[in-house]
Every structure is written in C-alpha cells, then in structure tokens.
Amino acid sequence: MSIESLKEQARRHEQKEEWLKALDQYKKAIAQLEKEDQPDIGLYNRVGDLFVRVGNLEEAVSHYNRAADLYVEAELPNNAIAVCKKIIRNVPDRHEAYLRMGQIRAQQGFLSDARTNFLTYAERMQKDGDLDESFRALVEFCDLAPDDVDVRIAVAEQMASHSRSTDAATQLAVAYRVLASSGDARASEVEA
Q1: Which of 25, 27, 110, 162 has a CA positioned 20 to 30 A from the CA of residue 172?
Q2: What are the DSSP E strand ranges found in 71-134?
Q3: CA dist., res. 144 & res. 135, Å (int)
Q4: Residue 136 CB partners (closer than 8 Å, separation 6+)
C-alpha cells in the first residue's frame, strides 16, 4: 500500500475518532518512509499528538523528539521549539525539553532565551537531586555564551556552596580570563 493511501486511511480513522486505527496506519506510513530515508516531519508530530490523545505519553514524547530532531536538521528551529513546548505542556516532568530549547535558542543566537531555558532545566534537575547534570547544563550554557560572566560567576558560587570548590575555581578562572581580556574592572574582584 502506498504511503499516501496509508495516510488517507489514517485521516479517515481520525475523522471517526478511531485513534488507535489511525495510529496503526500512520506508523505503517512512517515505517515505509524510513525505509526510503524520506522522513515526514509533520507525520511524527501528528503521531505524537495522537499518542497524547490515547494517553501513551512515552510514545508521544518519542515521536515529538524525532520531529524536533528533523526540524533542527531541516533548519526549522522555531518548529522544533514548538514541538518542545508540546512536550512540556503534555508531559511537564520531561525537563530535557527545556535543555533542548536552550540549545536550539543558543544556536540561533538568542542567548537571553537560551539562558532562561538552561536555568529552568538546571533548576529542575537540582530539584530532582541530580546536581551533576544541573551543573553540567549550566557549564554548557556558560560555554555557549562565554561573555555572560555573571552566569558563570553565579554557577561558580553555586558549585562552591555544594562543596565543589575545584569546579568553582575552574569557572572563576574562565570568568577572570574573559573579564581581563575585555579590560573589565571586575576582573580584579574575580581574581581575589
């Protein structure tokens, strides 16, 4: 059966609110498209929506993540962000979506938005007790936005307050180098 026929059958099942039958047809279409190495981004997104409708959030997130990957590959970052927001709306405990949005926004050069997403992700990881991942993400942001020394200094302070003095010193050294190279008077404060 052709891909278009499978998609048409799926749409007919959707009109009748036969979600599982629609999903079955869409999944067959996806499988055929993958064999031909021609993924249909919108189809992954649609299947994610249907999985939400039937309450299978794990599969929904899996399909949304694939759609986001494909949107990024297709250089459609705003579409990828929209899919990440669907994940957050439907499965709020999937904190990775914030990290993903931060990474995408940083690639776009929207560092203020990226900062917000990275900080949200790090905060949620800390609440979940994963300090290592929280600090890893914060350092990732600092490396993506090396001129944002305020965040790097704040990260160093948090690291120090959690008995990670070596990591804190590393971050302060980087902050010092950035401030010193730009002639910022705050370099002497960081050095001390």
Answers
A1: 110
A2: none
A3: 14
A4: none
